[in-house]
Amino acid sequence: MVMNTKATRNLLLITALAAVSVLSACGGNDQNESAGSTNGNSADPAAEQVTLRVFSNLPDRKSGQGLAEQMVIDNYTKENPNVKIELETLAEEPFKNKLKAYMASNEALDITMVHGGAELNTLVQAGYVKELDPAGYEGETYNFLPGVYKSFTFNDKLYGLPRNSDYEVIYYNQKIFADNGVNVPATYAELLDAAKQFRDKGIEPMSVNGKDLWSFAAFFQDLVIRVSGDQSLMLDAVEQKKNFTTDESFITAAKLLGEARDAKLFQESFMTADYGASQNLFTQGKAAMWYMGSWEAGMATNESLSEDFRNNVAVLKFPVVDGGKGKDTDLLAWNGGGYSLVSSSKHPEEAKKFFDYLMQADQWAKTVWDTGAAVPAQKYELTGTESGLQKQLTDVLTGATTTAGSLGLDYGTPKFKDDGQNAFGKFFAGGSTPEELLADLQKAAESQ
Amino acid sequence: MQKVFNNKMAIFLFVFPGILLFSLTFLVPIVLSTYYSFRDTLAPGTPSAFIGFANYTELLFHDTRFWLALRNAVLLGLGFIFIQHPIAIFFAIMLDRLGGKAEKWFRTIFFIPCVISVVVISKMWLSLLDPTFGAFNKLLDTLGLGFLKHAWLGDSSTALVTMLFILIWAGFGWGLLFYYAGLKGIPDEMYEAASLDGASGFKLQLRITVPLLSPVITVQITLAMITALKQMETVFLTTNGGPGDSTQFLAVYLYNKAFSASQYGYANAISILFIVVCLLATYLSNKLTRSDATEF
Questions:
Q1: Does the pTM exceed 0.90?
Q2: Fewer CB within 10 A of the end CB, N or C, for chain B?
Q3: If contacts are CB pairs under 8 Å, which of residues 408-447 in chain A contact chain B?
Q4: Which residues from chain B sit within 8 angstroms of residue A266, using beta carbons?
Q5: pLDDT tens for each residue of B226-276
Q6: Any signal peptide, and if so, which residues (chain A) (predicted)?
Q7: Quick one: which of A377, A369, A400, A398 has its CA closest to A148?
């Protein structure tokens, strides 16, 4: 019996020790928290150390937007030596999924990158992101362009700030076009004809990230805009004010999309190509065109790409459709990416300070433009040192006569986005006709 | 020591950590999952509403994608059982016969795919099978079979077969290892006795080796079925269920419903059915393969 109680006591002792060590670990976190909230003067090097957790979708920190983001972070930590920024990055799709997981467990991030529209809406409903006061971001310091909060506003409340002006364009390789004697297309028929000529020569005409599916939806929306000349038609249909299956413009656009499929406009492996794979195909000169957004301006200055490619990459507006009402200056533009403050932040004040700093017109907006990585959602000054690609992208934006304001896919619920994407996946896998695609989209809009 | 094990308190203290861990990692999630499966919600923490069996009726009677995913998982399981495992048994026997240094070498070579990370395997096959620069299509070209060139994973007519091939290839080493270990446990006298009775070659293997391997086979079939139903990583990393749902599998579908479509309640209903299907499959494969193990 003696041995018995001894064993029991030892066990209890071990358990108690384990419990103490667990509790003390929690205590350590608490200390950090108080350090953050009492910290008034951030410029004081003697101030207590604060670590801010930032979650971003830009894993490449050496070029493009990742470099711009890193530069702003470095600027801030230099000015505020007491602040350490713990950065976590993942590529686009895994990023979106992990952010949802973080939301579900109410992970104490401080600042996160967010995608406006459906994705952000979920975060808002979970109360994971903080409401912002738009009045605080008026004036010269921030210089946001008008109307850029659209995808970040829910029930008239603002939950994030956009970092870029996003719009879909066709990047193309001038050298591949010239070497093969193919004319740069100005109409959709010419685009499909160019696709045929490239195919005959064994060159992939256009690269697209088909595995991620959303590019198809953007391509379709571009077609709808070119056919109807109406920027809001697609968005209205998502909101069920219009009908996908009966509206003539949708029917024509879906048929045109079918022609792209049948003409094999996209690379052969397009259904398994994720973002990186589709980009590599284009930047390595294996595809003549790449259908992607304006945020890839950094390609022209990315030293890891061949000089030959950098000198030849150019931008093409989505071609007009014969007989369509849309002009080539009707731009599929929106503000997709941005940043939000996280509600469960352990250092709310320090987080807001860094957030405000990041969003200043002379920080993110200026850096991203100067490094040639993307087109900001804030007013920016031309420096005169812009790359040719940047100038072309600016011309597309400043020359736009109408803009969409949102991607159709992001205009509904996440369920609509998922169902809609899958409808396009089914269509491009060859499993459905243009009419079935529209029926699927209509069903997705109704059941969201 | 005997006394310690007689004391109920001591037993409790020994068992409790294990039970606690099991509850927190298995029971609690299942209970929570059941709770969410009756609700309509975007994610934990968002507003949710009780909707009864609506998720389940939608799933069972209206969701063709779910049934497609289940069908693909069952096909994969059958592929494992009828293609992968017979080959594994065959190779295990050959390996056993080989002996010496060659046996060690091949044993290692066959097991290599099982040591490589799933991410590497997925990306490797994506590259190998790429229609533009993939080595496999290049090989077809040099063999004069250029007409067979194809986007193997990118075309819905071949994607599933290709996916099954990759998964069967990737899991082959494990099957081989188990059968090989089983073979090593069969005493030589059995073969000697059978030879004396006139059995040889294929007949010898079929009548002696396979029945004596039956305990291993039973376990392997159950494991194969569960592995097939749980398949997730390779599919997620290569096709993500596409093109057009042709390689949709249960776990991938569940994941996308929960995290891409934000249908969290619905995804939990899938996960509950998933558990039921797995239990059923385990029960069935146990039942069907039960045989009295031969003593030796």
A1: no
A2: N
A3: 413-415, 417-419, 422, 425-432
A4: none
A5: 999 999 999 999 998 878 889 999 999 999 898 888 889 999 999 999 999
A6: 1-25
A7: A377
